[in-house]
Amino acid sequence: MVQAAPFLLLLFLALGAHSLSAKKCSLTGHWVNDLGSNMTILNVNASGNFTGIYNTSVSATSNDIKPSPLLGSQHLPDQPTFGFTVNWSFSDSITVFTGQCFMDDEGKETLRTMWLLRSRVENIKNDWKATRVGYNDFKRLE
Question: How much is the pTM?
Fold first, then answer.
């Protein structure tokens, strides 16, 4: 039995390492970003398309914030790139996000994103102030 212990330990470590490397980032689920905004991404279909709901915690408008629909697409490898659009329900603006899902050594996922927010302006002379750029990291809500 003593001679089997090193073999079993080695087998256990090998299987454990294999299961870590076999993990895959999944966009499906509930996420929160560094500003406290949260989103729910519903099931990603076989083509990589998905829908969801985004609830922002920040806004430049005085309107009441409401959950807003999102529509996106991703590639399907282990750490996928993705993009999605949020059509804000409470303002005349749209935000597009693009990013990648990363998995750390402990199996924790991070969605690293950059975004462009386009607000409606009255005329082309005001176009200079219509687009904002930023970035957010999202962590899975557990």
Answer: 0.79
